[in-house]
Specification:
- By secondary structure, the chain is an alpha/beta fold.
- The protein folds into three domains: 15-60 and 162-326, Rossmann fold, CATH 3.40.50.1100; 82-150, 3-Layer(aba) Sandwich (Rossmann fold), CATH 3.40.50.1100; 332-409, ACT domain (Alpha-Beta Plaits), CATH 3.30.70.260.
- Helix content is 43%, strand content 19%.
- It is built from 17 helices and 14 strands.
- The chain has helices at 15-25, 38-44, 62-70, 75-80, 89-101, 115-123, 135-149, 160-176, 191-200, 219-225, 247-256, 265-278, 289-296, 298-301, 317-330, 347-357, 390-402, and strands spanning 34-36, 47-52, 82-85, 105-109, 127-130, 152-153, 182-186, 208-214, 259-263, 305-310, 334-342, 361-368, 378-386, 406-409.
- The protein has a six-stranded mixed sheet with strand order 1-2-10-7-8-9, sandwiched between helices. Strands 5-4-3-6 form a four-stranded parallel sheet, with helices on both faces.
- Strand 4 (105-109), helix 6 (115-123) and strand 5 (127-130) form a beta-alpha-beta unit.
- The two termini are 29 Å apart.
- The model has no long low-confidence stretch (mean pLDDT 93).
- One of its GO terms (molecular function) is threonine deaminase activity.
- This is Threonine ammonia-lyase.
- Residues 336-413 form the ACT domain.
Length: 413
Protein backbone atom coordinates (compact mmCIF):
# COMPACT_ATOMS: atom_id res chain seq x y z
CA UNK A 1 0.00 0.00 0.00
CA UNK A 2 1.44 3.37 -1.04
CA UNK A 3 1.44 6.37 1.26
CA UNK A 4 -0.79 9.26 0.25
CA UNK A 5 1.26 12.22 -0.93
CA UNK A 6 0.41 15.77 0.09
CA UNK A 7 -0.39 17.83 -3.05
CA UNK A 8 2.11 20.54 -3.99
CA UNK A 9 -0.80 22.86 -4.85
CA UNK A 10 -4.52 22.97 -3.99
CA UNK A 11 -6.42 20.20 -5.75
CA UNK A 12 -8.48 21.41 -8.71
CA UNK A 13 -11.78 19.93 -7.48
CA UNK A 14 -13.40 20.57 -4.11
CA UNK A 15 -16.37 19.13 -2.27
CA UNK A 16 -18.22 22.38 -3.06
CA UNK A 17 -17.58 21.78 -6.78
CA UNK A 18 -19.19 18.35 -6.53
CA UNK A 19 -22.17 19.75 -4.64
CA UNK A 20 -22.58 22.41 -7.33
CA UNK A 21 -22.40 19.72 -10.02
CA UNK A 22 -25.10 17.73 -8.22
CA UNK A 23 -27.44 20.73 -8.24
CA UNK A 24 -26.60 21.44 -11.88
CA UNK A 25 -27.39 17.95 -13.21
CA UNK A 26 -30.28 17.13 -10.84
CA UNK A 27 -33.31 15.85 -12.70
CA UNK A 28 -31.38 15.21 -15.92
CA UNK A 29 -29.55 12.05 -14.85
CA UNK A 30 -30.97 9.07 -12.98
CA UNK A 31 -30.46 9.09 -9.22
CA UNK A 32 -29.52 5.45 -9.24
CA UNK A 33 -30.14 3.28 -6.17
CA UNK A 34 -27.53 2.12 -3.66
CA UNK A 35 -28.72 -1.24 -2.37
CA UNK A 36 -27.48 -3.79 0.14
CA UNK A 37 -26.58 -7.25 -1.17
CA UNK A 38 -27.08 -9.92 1.47
CA UNK A 39 -25.87 -12.72 -0.79
CA UNK A 40 -22.66 -10.99 -1.85
CA UNK A 41 -22.08 -9.95 1.75
CA UNK A 42 -22.34 -13.58 2.83
CA UNK A 43 -19.99 -14.66 0.03
CA UNK A 44 -17.27 -12.06 0.64
CA UNK A 45 -17.44 -11.51 4.39
CA UNK A 46 -17.90 -7.78 3.85
CA UNK A 47 -21.11 -5.77 4.23
CA UNK A 48 -21.63 -4.99 0.55
CA UNK A 49 -23.54 -1.99 -0.83
CA UNK A 50 -23.90 -1.57 -4.60
CA UNK A 51 -24.38 1.64 -6.57
CA UNK A 52 -26.21 0.73 -9.80
CA UNK A 53 -24.86 3.27 -12.29
CA UNK A 54 -25.64 0.81 -15.07
CA UNK A 55 -29.24 2.05 -14.72
CA UNK A 56 -28.43 5.42 -16.28
CA UNK A 57 -30.11 6.04 -19.64
CA UNK A 58 -26.87 5.30 -21.49
CA UNK A 59 -26.06 2.56 -18.94
CA UNK A 60 -22.99 4.30 -17.47
CA UNK A 61 -21.98 6.96 -14.95
CA UNK A 62 -20.15 8.97 -17.65
CA UNK A 63 -23.30 11.00 -18.25
CA UNK A 64 -22.73 12.88 -15.01
CA UNK A 65 -19.39 14.46 -15.91
CA UNK A 66 -20.38 15.02 -19.53
CA UNK A 67 -23.56 16.88 -18.56
CA UNK A 68 -21.82 18.92 -15.86
CA UNK A 69 -19.30 20.07 -18.47
CA UNK A 70 -21.87 20.86 -21.16
CA UNK A 71 -23.95 22.94 -18.76
CA UNK A 72 -20.96 25.18 -17.99
CA UNK A 73 -20.27 26.13 -21.63
CA UNK A 74 -21.04 29.69 -22.69
CA UNK A 75 -23.49 30.40 -25.50
CA UNK A 76 -20.78 30.74 -28.14
CA UNK A 77 -19.21 27.38 -27.26
CA UNK A 78 -22.63 25.72 -27.22
CA UNK A 79 -23.42 27.04 -30.68
CA UNK A 80 -20.14 25.83 -32.19
CA UNK A 81 -20.32 22.43 -30.50
CA UNK A 82 -18.03 20.02 -28.70
CA UNK A 83 -15.70 17.23 -29.74
CA UNK A 84 -14.29 14.19 -27.96
CA UNK A 85 -12.29 11.06 -28.67
CA UNK A 86 -13.96 7.98 -27.29
CA UNK A 87 -15.12 4.53 -28.32
CA UNK A 88 -17.15 3.93 -25.20
CA UNK A 89 -19.40 5.32 -22.52
CA UNK A 90 -18.05 8.89 -22.63
CA UNK A 91 -19.07 9.14 -26.28
CA UNK A 92 -22.63 8.05 -25.58
CA UNK A 93 -23.06 10.22 -22.49
CA UNK A 94 -21.79 13.30 -24.30
CA UNK A 95 -23.85 12.54 -27.42
CA UNK A 96 -27.06 11.94 -25.47
CA UNK A 97 -26.94 15.10 -23.36
CA UNK A 98 -25.53 17.22 -26.19
CA UNK A 99 -28.47 16.24 -28.36
CA UNK A 100 -30.89 16.90 -25.52
CA UNK A 101 -29.43 20.39 -24.98
CA UNK A 102 -29.14 21.24 -28.66
CA UNK A 103 -25.32 21.27 -28.61
CA UNK A 104 -23.64 19.72 -31.69
CA UNK A 105 -21.41 16.80 -30.71
CA UNK A 106 -18.62 15.27 -32.79
CA UNK A 107 -16.98 12.03 -31.65
CA UNK A 108 -13.75 10.69 -33.15
CA UNK A 109 -13.45 6.90 -32.86
CA UNK A 110 -10.75 4.47 -34.01
CA UNK A 111 -11.63 2.74 -37.27
CA UNK A 112 -11.77 -0.65 -35.52
CA UNK A 113 -14.52 0.47 -33.11
CA UNK A 114 -17.35 -2.13 -33.14
CA UNK A 115 -20.20 -1.08 -35.40
CA UNK A 116 -22.72 -1.33 -32.56
CA UNK A 117 -20.88 1.40 -30.61
CA UNK A 118 -20.76 3.65 -33.66
CA UNK A 119 -24.48 3.14 -34.25
CA UNK A 120 -25.36 3.76 -30.61
CA UNK A 121 -23.43 7.04 -30.57
CA UNK A 122 -24.93 8.17 -33.87
CA UNK A 123 -28.33 7.17 -32.51
CA UNK A 124 -27.91 9.83 -29.81
CA UNK A 125 -27.45 12.47 -32.50
CA UNK A 126 -23.66 12.75 -32.63
CA UNK A 127 -21.50 13.01 -35.74
CA UNK A 128 -19.01 10.13 -35.67
CA UNK A 129 -15.66 10.36 -37.45
CA UNK A 130 -13.63 7.16 -37.77
CA UNK A 131 -9.90 7.86 -37.77
CA UNK A 132 -6.77 5.85 -37.00
CA UNK A 133 -6.25 2.35 -35.71
CA UNK A 134 -5.85 3.26 -32.02
CA UNK A 135 -7.38 5.55 -29.41
CA UNK A 136 -4.22 7.67 -29.43
CA UNK A 137 -4.60 8.32 -33.16
CA UNK A 138 -8.29 9.19 -32.72
CA UNK A 139 -7.41 11.51 -29.81
CA UNK A 140 -4.75 13.33 -31.83
CA UNK A 141 -7.18 13.83 -34.72
CA UNK A 142 -9.87 15.13 -32.37
CA UNK A 143 -7.45 17.74 -31.01
CA UNK A 144 -6.62 18.77 -34.58
CA UNK A 145 -10.30 19.17 -35.44
CA UNK A 146 -10.82 21.08 -32.20
CA UNK A 147 -8.44 23.77 -33.43
CA UNK A 148 -9.55 23.71 -37.06
CA UNK A 149 -13.27 24.00 -36.30
CA UNK A 150 -13.04 26.04 -33.09
CA UNK A 151 -14.82 23.33 -31.10
CA UNK A 152 -14.62 22.66 -27.35
CA UNK A 153 -12.79 19.46 -26.49
CA UNK A 154 -14.38 17.43 -23.68
CA UNK A 155 -11.84 15.10 -22.13
CA UNK A 156 -13.18 11.77 -20.82
CA UNK A 157 -11.49 12.14 -17.41
CA UNK A 158 -8.74 14.78 -17.13
CA UNK A 159 -10.97 17.82 -16.56
CA UNK A 160 -12.15 19.31 -13.23
CA UNK A 161 -15.70 19.63 -14.54
CA UNK A 162 -15.75 15.96 -15.48
CA UNK A 163 -14.31 14.95 -12.11
CA UNK A 164 -16.85 17.05 -10.20
CA UNK A 165 -19.70 15.47 -12.15
CA UNK A 166 -18.46 11.96 -11.49
CA UNK A 167 -18.14 12.78 -7.79
CA UNK A 168 -21.93 13.05 -7.54
CA UNK A 169 -21.93 9.23 -7.53
CA UNK A 170 -20.38 9.30 -4.04
CA UNK A 171 -22.72 12.03 -2.78
CA UNK A 172 -25.67 9.76 -3.51
CA UNK A 173 -24.00 6.61 -2.19
CA UNK A 174 -23.10 8.10 1.18
CA UNK A 175 -26.53 9.69 1.53
CA UNK A 176 -28.17 6.30 0.96
CA UNK A 177 -25.65 4.18 2.90
CA UNK A 178 -23.94 6.47 5.44
CA UNK A 179 -22.29 3.55 7.28
CA UNK A 180 -19.95 2.83 4.34
CA UNK A 181 -16.35 2.85 5.57
CA UNK A 182 -14.64 1.59 2.40
CA UNK A 183 -15.21 2.59 -1.21
CA UNK A 184 -13.90 0.28 -3.95
CA UNK A 185 -13.83 2.12 -7.27
CA UNK A 186 -12.79 1.08 -10.80
CA UNK A 187 -9.97 3.15 -12.32
CA UNK A 188 -9.30 3.79 -15.98
CA UNK A 189 -8.15 7.35 -16.49
CA UNK A 190 -9.11 8.21 -12.93
CA UNK A 191 -12.06 10.59 -13.29
CA UNK A 192 -14.50 8.56 -11.22
CA UNK A 193 -12.19 7.78 -8.31
CA UNK A 194 -10.98 11.40 -8.25
CA UNK A 195 -14.52 12.65 -7.82
CA UNK A 196 -15.47 9.91 -5.37
CA UNK A 197 -12.40 10.46 -3.19
CA UNK A 198 -13.03 14.23 -3.12
CA UNK A 199 -16.43 13.54 -1.56
CA UNK A 200 -15.22 10.77 0.74
CA UNK A 201 -12.53 12.93 2.28
CA UNK A 202 -15.22 15.42 3.34
CA UNK A 203 -17.31 12.76 5.12
CA UNK A 204 -17.95 12.90 8.86
CA UNK A 205 -16.09 9.60 9.42
CA UNK A 206 -12.94 7.99 7.95
CA UNK A 207 -13.52 6.22 4.64
CA UNK A 208 -10.84 4.09 3.00
CA UNK A 209 -10.66 4.55 -0.76
CA UNK A 210 -9.39 1.62 -2.83
CA UNK A 211 -9.01 1.78 -6.59
CA UNK A 212 -9.26 -1.27 -8.85
CA UNK A 213 -7.54 -1.86 -12.17
CA UNK A 214 -7.37 -4.85 -14.49
CA UNK A 215 -4.02 -6.67 -14.26
CA UNK A 216 -3.47 -6.07 -17.97
CA UNK A 217 -3.80 -2.27 -17.64
CA UNK A 218 -2.14 -1.16 -14.38
CA UNK A 219 -1.45 2.41 -15.56
CA UNK A 220 -2.68 4.30 -12.49
CA UNK A 221 -1.28 1.56 -10.26
CA UNK A 222 2.14 2.20 -11.79
CA UNK A 223 1.81 5.94 -11.22
CA UNK A 224 0.60 5.40 -7.67
CA UNK A 225 3.20 2.84 -6.60
CA UNK A 226 6.20 3.71 -8.78
CA UNK A 227 6.09 0.33 -10.54
CA UNK A 228 6.54 -0.18 -14.27
CA UNK A 229 4.24 -3.10 -15.07
CA UNK A 230 3.35 -3.44 -18.77
CA UNK A 231 -0.01 -2.24 -20.09
CA UNK A 232 -1.68 -4.10 -22.94
CA UNK A 233 -3.76 -7.07 -24.01
CA UNK A 234 -7.39 -8.03 -24.43
CA UNK A 235 -9.22 -7.35 -21.19
CA UNK A 236 -12.87 -7.87 -20.40
CA UNK A 237 -12.73 -4.51 -18.60
CA UNK A 238 -12.25 -2.45 -21.75
CA UNK A 239 -13.87 0.57 -20.08
CA UNK A 240 -10.85 0.90 -17.78
CA UNK A 241 -8.20 -0.23 -20.28
CA UNK A 242 -6.27 3.04 -20.24
CA UNK A 243 -2.53 3.06 -20.94
CA UNK A 244 -1.90 6.58 -19.67
CA UNK A 245 -3.83 8.06 -16.71
CA UNK A 246 -4.68 11.74 -16.57
CA UNK A 247 -2.29 14.35 -15.21
CA UNK A 248 -4.94 15.96 -13.03
CA UNK A 249 -6.40 12.65 -11.91
CA UNK A 250 -2.99 11.17 -11.05
CA UNK A 251 -2.37 14.09 -8.69
CA UNK A 252 -5.77 13.66 -7.03
CA UNK A 253 -5.30 9.91 -6.68
CA UNK A 254 -1.85 10.37 -5.15
CA UNK A 255 -3.27 12.80 -2.59
CA UNK A 256 -6.58 11.17 -1.69
CA UNK A 257 -6.61 7.43 -2.51
CA UNK A 258 -5.39 4.87 0.03
CA UNK A 259 -4.63 1.89 -2.17
CA UNK A 260 -4.96 0.44 -5.67
CA UNK A 261 -5.35 -3.30 -6.30
CA UNK A 262 -5.17 -5.32 -9.50
CA UNK A 263 -7.68 -8.00 -10.50
CA UNK A 264 -7.35 -10.93 -12.87
CA UNK A 265 -9.42 -11.56 -15.98
CA UNK A 266 -10.83 -14.67 -14.34
CA UNK A 267 -12.14 -12.64 -11.39
CA UNK A 268 -13.66 -10.08 -13.75
CA UNK A 269 -15.49 -12.83 -15.63
CA UNK A 270 -16.67 -14.43 -12.40
CA UNK A 271 -17.95 -11.08 -11.10
CA UNK A 272 -19.90 -10.25 -14.27
CA UNK A 273 -21.56 -13.65 -13.95
CA UNK A 274 -22.27 -13.26 -10.21
CA UNK A 275 -23.88 -9.84 -10.66
CA UNK A 276 -26.21 -11.25 -13.29
CA UNK A 277 -27.06 -14.39 -11.30
CA UNK A 278 -27.36 -12.79 -7.86
CA UNK A 279 -28.34 -9.16 -8.45
CA UNK A 280 -30.09 -9.80 -11.78
CA UNK A 281 -28.17 -6.89 -13.29
CA UNK A 282 -25.91 -6.63 -16.34
CA UNK A 283 -22.44 -5.21 -15.70
CA UNK A 284 -19.68 -4.67 -18.23
CA UNK A 285 -16.22 -5.84 -17.25
CA UNK A 286 -15.22 -2.47 -15.79
CA UNK A 287 -18.51 -2.31 -13.90
CA UNK A 288 -17.74 -5.61 -12.20
CA UNK A 289 -14.22 -4.59 -11.11
CA UNK A 290 -15.27 -3.57 -7.59
CA UNK A 291 -16.80 -6.96 -6.88
CA UNK A 292 -13.79 -8.63 -8.51
CA UNK A 293 -11.55 -6.90 -5.94
CA UNK A 294 -13.68 -8.26 -3.07
CA UNK A 295 -13.47 -11.75 -4.57
CA UNK A 296 -9.72 -11.52 -5.27
CA UNK A 297 -8.77 -10.12 -1.85
CA UNK A 298 -11.40 -11.33 0.66
CA UNK A 299 -9.13 -10.84 3.69
CA UNK A 300 -8.50 -7.24 2.63
CA UNK A 301 -12.19 -6.31 2.94
CA UNK A 302 -13.65 -8.81 5.40
CA UNK A 303 -15.65 -7.11 8.16
CA UNK A 304 -15.75 -3.77 6.36
CA UNK A 305 -18.86 -1.91 5.14
CA UNK A 306 -17.96 -1.66 1.47
CA UNK A 307 -19.52 0.41 -1.30
CA UNK A 308 -18.88 -0.70 -4.87
CA UNK A 309 -19.93 1.05 -8.07
CA UNK A 310 -21.29 -0.81 -11.08
CA UNK A 311 -20.03 1.98 -13.30
CA UNK A 312 -21.47 0.62 -16.54
CA UNK A 313 -23.53 -2.11 -18.17
CA UNK A 314 -22.55 -1.81 -21.82
CA UNK A 315 -21.31 -5.26 -22.74
CA UNK A 316 -21.71 -7.01 -26.08
CA UNK A 317 -24.39 -9.69 -25.76
CA UNK A 318 -22.27 -12.36 -27.45
CA UNK A 319 -19.37 -11.60 -25.12
CA UNK A 320 -21.73 -11.76 -22.13
CA UNK A 321 -22.97 -15.17 -23.30
CA UNK A 322 -19.37 -16.40 -23.53
CA UNK A 323 -18.59 -15.13 -20.04
CA UNK A 324 -21.64 -16.87 -18.57
CA UNK A 325 -20.89 -20.17 -20.29
CA UNK A 326 -17.23 -20.05 -19.22
CA UNK A 327 -18.34 -19.46 -15.64
CA UNK A 328 -20.65 -22.48 -15.84
CA UNK A 329 -17.69 -24.53 -17.09
CA UNK A 330 -15.42 -23.38 -14.28
CA UNK A 331 -18.07 -24.27 -11.69
CA UNK A 332 -18.44 -27.77 -13.13
CA UNK A 333 -21.98 -27.29 -14.45
CA UNK A 334 -20.74 -27.48 -18.03
CA UNK A 335 -17.84 -29.70 -19.05
CA UNK A 336 -16.06 -31.03 -22.11
CA UNK A 337 -14.62 -34.51 -21.63
CA UNK A 338 -12.13 -36.20 -23.97
CA UNK A 339 -12.59 -39.98 -23.94
CA UNK A 340 -10.46 -42.56 -25.75
CA UNK A 341 -12.53 -45.26 -27.45
CA UNK A 342 -11.99 -48.25 -29.73
CA UNK A 343 -13.52 -47.69 -33.17
CA UNK A 344 -16.02 -50.54 -33.15
CA UNK A 345 -19.82 -50.98 -33.01
CA UNK A 346 -21.43 -50.29 -29.66
CA UNK A 347 -18.55 -48.19 -28.27
CA UNK A 348 -20.57 -44.97 -28.20
CA UNK A 349 -23.58 -46.77 -26.74
CA UNK A 350 -21.54 -48.06 -23.81
CA UNK A 351 -20.26 -44.58 -22.99
CA UNK A 352 -23.75 -43.09 -23.32
CA UNK A 353 -25.04 -45.70 -20.87
CA UNK A 354 -22.70 -44.38 -18.17
CA UNK A 355 -23.87 -40.81 -18.79
CA UNK A 356 -27.46 -42.03 -18.48
CA UNK A 357 -26.76 -43.97 -15.27
CA UNK A 358 -25.21 -40.89 -13.65
CA UNK A 359 -28.01 -38.59 -14.93
CA UNK A 360 -25.64 -36.33 -16.89
CA UNK A 361 -27.11 -34.54 -19.90
CA UNK A 362 -25.11 -34.84 -23.15
CA UNK A 363 -25.19 -31.58 -25.14
CA UNK A 364 -22.80 -32.26 -28.00
CA UNK A 365 -20.59 -35.05 -29.37
CA UNK A 366 -17.51 -34.81 -31.58
CA UNK A 367 -15.51 -37.77 -32.95
CA UNK A 368 -11.90 -37.45 -34.11
CA UNK A 369 -10.49 -40.34 -36.14
CA UNK A 370 -7.98 -38.61 -38.44
CA UNK A 371 -6.23 -35.77 -36.58
CA UNK A 372 -5.19 -37.78 -33.54
CA UNK A 373 -2.09 -39.51 -32.27
CA UNK A 374 -4.12 -42.63 -31.42
CA UNK A 375 -3.71 -45.90 -33.34
CA UNK A 376 -5.77 -46.38 -36.51
CA UNK A 377 -8.39 -48.40 -34.63
CA UNK A 378 -8.73 -45.82 -31.90
CA UNK A 379 -10.72 -42.59 -31.79
CA UNK A 380 -11.06 -39.58 -29.58
CA UNK A 381 -14.57 -38.61 -28.45
CA UNK A 382 -15.25 -35.13 -27.10
CA UNK A 383 -18.45 -34.92 -25.06
CA UNK A 384 -19.89 -31.59 -23.97
CA UNK A 385 -22.21 -32.23 -21.05
CA UNK A 386 -24.27 -30.55 -18.36
CA UNK A 387 -24.10 -31.51 -14.68
CA UNK A 388 -25.64 -30.21 -11.46
CA UNK A 389 -22.31 -29.16 -9.91
CA UNK A 390 -18.66 -30.17 -9.64
CA UNK A 391 -19.45 -33.08 -7.30
CA UNK A 392 -21.85 -34.47 -9.92
CA UNK A 393 -19.15 -34.13 -12.58
CA UNK A 394 -16.65 -35.92 -10.35
CA UNK A 395 -19.08 -38.84 -9.98
CA UNK A 396 -19.30 -39.11 -13.77
CA UNK A 397 -15.52 -39.13 -14.14
CA UNK A 398 -15.23 -41.81 -11.45
CA UNK A 399 -17.82 -43.98 -13.20
CA UNK A 400 -16.08 -43.68 -16.58
CA UNK A 401 -12.69 -44.57 -15.13
CA UNK A 402 -14.22 -47.46 -13.19
CA UNK A 403 -15.22 -48.90 -16.60
CA UNK A 404 -11.58 -48.52 -17.73
CA UNK A 405 -12.12 -45.53 -20.01
CA UNK A 406 -9.22 -43.12 -20.45
CA UNK A 407 -10.85 -39.73 -19.88
CA UNK A 408 -9.58 -36.18 -19.38
CA UNK A 409 -11.24 -32.84 -18.70
CA UNK A 410 -10.68 -30.09 -21.27
CA UNK A 411 -9.82 -27.19 -18.98
CA UNK A 412 -10.46 -23.48 -19.46
CA UNK A 413 -7.69 -20.93 -19.15
Amino acid sequence: MATRRAPSAPLPVTYADVEAAAMRIAGSVVRTPTLHSKTLSDMTGADVWIKFENLQFTAAYKERGALNTLLQLDDAARAKGVIAASAGNHAQGLAYHGNRLGIPVTIVMPRLTPTVKVMQTEGHGATVILHGETYDAAYAHARTLEAERDLTFVHPFDDPRIIAGQGTVALEMLADAPAIDTLVVPIGGGGLISGVSTVARAADHPIEIVGVQAELYPSMYNSFTGNHLPCGGDTLAEGIAVKQPGTITADVVAALVDDIVLVSERRLEESVSLLLQIEKTVAEGAGAAGLAALMEYPDRFRGRTVGIVICGGNIDTRLLANVLLRDLARSGRLARLRIRLQDRPGALFQVARIFNDTAVNILELSHQRIFTNLPAKGLSLDVECETRDKAHLDRLLTALRADNYEVSLVELA
